[in-house]
Amino acid sequence: MTASVADTRPRIDGALVRRLVDTQFPQWAELPLKLLNPAGSDHVIYRLGEELSVRLPRHAGAIGQARKEFEWLPRLAQHLPLAIPVPVGVGEPDFGYPWPWAVSRWLDGEVATVEALADSAQGAIELAHFLAALQRFAPEGVPAENTREDLTGPPLSDRDHETRLAIAKVDGTFDATAMTALWDAALSAPGWDRPPVWFHGDFHTGNLLTLDGHLTAVIDFGGLGIGDPACDLMIAFTLMTADSRTAFRDALGVDDATWMRGRGWALATGLNAYTTYAAVNPQVAAQTTRQITQALIG
After folding, report:
1. Which of 194, 178, 183 shows the shortest CA–CA distance to 255?
2. Structural domain that includes position 42
3. How far apart are CA 19 and CA 21, in angstroms?
C-alpha cells in the first residue's frame, strides 16, 4: 500500500517544538508556547511568549522558506510601508524533525476580510504602495538578471496543464468557456519586458493583517522572488471589488498585459485551491469562488 502525502509529513507537536526551542535557543526556554490554529497549509505555527513565533514547515515544499526569509526580510522591512515578519533565528533539524525552521517577531492583528476591506479604496491604494515599494527594493547581492534558484518564480505557463484540467473538472460550477478564454488570453499576453522586480509571490487576503479595520502587516514571504510582478495582482481579485480594484490598478500603474497575466494568476491559483480544498473546507470554497468569479470579471 502506498503511503499518502499526509503519512510522510513529520509529526509536529508541542513537546517537539519545546525541545527544539529549548536546545537551540535556550534564551527563550522559559517562554510559553501556544499553538496557533488554524495556521495555514504550509507551516505549523506556535506563539512563543508575547513577542515571538515559531514556524515549522509541514511539507517539503516549504523547507527553503526559513533561510530565505532570514536573509531577505530584515533587509526589506525598513523599505516597506506595512510591517512584515522579521526572523530572528533559523533552527536546525533535530529530534526527528527533518527541516530548517524559524523564529520570528510576532505581529499582532487579524487576517484581513473581504467584508471589512473589499470596498476600501484607501486599503487598495495602501496595498498598491506596498507593492510599489517592494518592486523598488534593489539590494546588493542579487544580479540584475536574477539567477538565484530560490528567488526565481515559475512562469504562468508552467500551470497550463493543471489549469486546463481544473477548468474541465469544475465545468458546470463555473463557466468553462469564459475561463478558457481568460486563460488563453493570459498565456498569450506579452511578457514582462522590464528589469526584473521583487514580488511577494502569494499576495492574497489570507496573508494580510489588520488592526481596528486598518491594514498593518503582510506575512508569509515563502514565495518571495524576483521577476514578473504579475503574480502579486492576485490580491485585486481575492480582496477587492471592481471600484477598489480600479483604484489599486491606477495607484500601481499596471499596464494591460501585466493586468491580464495577473488575472491568469488569480484564475490558476483559485482553481488549484478550489479543486483541492473546496469539498472539505467551506471557507476555502467561498474564498476561491469569489477569486475565480472576480478574475473573470477583470
Report:
1. 194
2. 10-105
3. 6
